[in-house]
User: What shape does this take?
Amino acid sequence: MANKKVALITGAGKGIGREIALALAGEGIDVALATRTDSDLQSLIPEIEKSGQKAIDAQLDVSAYEELERFAQEVYKKFGRIDYLFVNAGIGGEKASVLNGSAEKWKEVIDTNLTGAYYTVKAVLPFLTLNAHAKIILIGSGLGHRGQAGNTAYSVSKAGLWMFTRLLAQELAEHNISVNEIIPGPVKTNIDKNSGIAFSDNLFNSEWIKTPTDVIPLVQFLLAQPETGPTGQSFSLARRDL
Ligand SMILES: NC(=O)c1ccc[n+]([C@@H]2O[C@H](COP(=O)([O-])OP(=O)(O)OC[C@H]3O[C@@H](n4cnc5c(N)ncnc54)[C@H](OP(=O)(O)O)[C@@H]3O)[C@@H](O)[C@H]2O)c1
Assistant: This one.
């Protein structure tokens, strides 16, 4: 039997990340779960274990590189491999212009969504390169391709994430690691609560308002792609011109 795959997911406590963790465990993949709120992990672990898979977790902040480094090492020590990395942890911005918005909020959004993504990849990459063909999936946003005035920090963080996706794909091609972005489009999660940008503010014409479960088929599609499959691409579930 082939070795069991292992996926590391940031922001696994809620929303899209939690659903990805549950879906992967349902497909026989062991999972490494990182997020900020410990109670989210405590409620998720038993659900993962119910599906017969193993889980390891860490309460951490993706803007703290050392915490990610420590966790990646722990995961490798426990499972002996990391095959899939989901760079998912993210927060929304504030509804304010550059003129009126807060410099602290700008830093928090960039630190989490962009620097946090870099830290996550940097910490996990040494273990991914040990595999024949690993995959990195970053959860981007349509606002990273066509930004929204008044939501500048978030749009800029996700635009950076998209460029990061493409450059990583080039750098990692020689390691047979594919790197792709998913654009979920609007999904009902907690992100609105923290962002001050109401869900409806992000709507464009006839968008598809999803639940986290609706994102899973695209995740499964990407994981099913062969070693010679797509890399450096953006896969969108939006219903608008990005
Ligand atoms: N929902 C949408 O409409 C939508 C659309 C496009 C893209 N996205 C992207 O999808 C990803 C997941 O968002 P979601 O909608 O599922 O939101 P969510 O329900 O708020 O979940 C986000 C998760 O990330 C965690 N997180 C946030 N900051 C973190 C940090 N600094 N360190 C570690 N974990 C952190 C959160 O933990 P705590 O709750 O403990 O802080 C939470 O578990 C984000 O990157 C988001 O930008 C979402």
Notes: Residues 10-11, 13-17, 35-37, 40, 61-63, 88-91, 112, 116, 139, 141, 184, 186-187, 189-191 surround NAP (CB under 6 Å). The chain has one domain: 6-236.
